[in-house]
Amino acid sequence: MDTLISLLADPTAWIALATLIVMEVVLGIDNLIFIAILTNKLPEEHRSRGRRIGIGAALILRLGLLGTIAFIVQLTDPIFTLFGEGFSWRDLILIAGGLFLVWKATREIHEKVDPQTGPEPAGATVGAASFAAVIGQILVLDLVFSIDSIITAVGMTDHLPIMVVAVVVAVTVMLLAADPLSEFINANPTIVMLALGFLLLIGTTLIADGFGAHVPKGYIYAAMAFSALIEALNMLQRRARRRRVG
User: Fold this and answer.
1) Percentage with pLDDT > 70 across the chain
2) What is the model's pTM?
3) DSSP string computed for 64-102
């Protein structure tokens, strides 16, 4: 109790909390884009529930990992060396997660560019995916993003209450943004391709990070923001053209 009171009275603790919340929200964008794209493949009546389950699982994983900080810190210790480069459990998880993300994004892009044609079985929903399969894929990436998120939090502050509050706030923001983002992506096909491109970029970055080639996240998010700005201008141009034609 005394520790909590001292934290509330410490201005540096509030600065650390604000900084960590911003970092966690930014790191959550990757997770949210992946959840939005996957759940949009579900039948419409199951999409919102799928998003809530995916984001709820992300919160549970993050809070669970915070409860094992000593174990999380050890994940960065090298367990073997290959070609002079030490690899930790964190590195292996990032590489595996990055490979999965690249594979998934590439497969989704292929489906968008070369959709399968042919008659649908009776009662089938076009583009619908298995609910269990979608949730399973979300959980895999939740784990990867959660470990990266918590290691970032541990590196920024030593105070567990600050980490917990930052994680809860960031996941709450994800929960509030999930439905609007998913609906926007679903309503704009070109945005889907852009988001898949983001996932390819994020997956490649995770693989590079796992192999020790750290790419500053600021560069990645700057590239994503620039691409999103260009696409927004394209959307405004298409809207203006439709108005002129109409």
Assistant:
1) 85
2) 0.71
3) HHHTTHHHHHHTTSEEEEETTEEEEHHHHHHHHHHHHHH
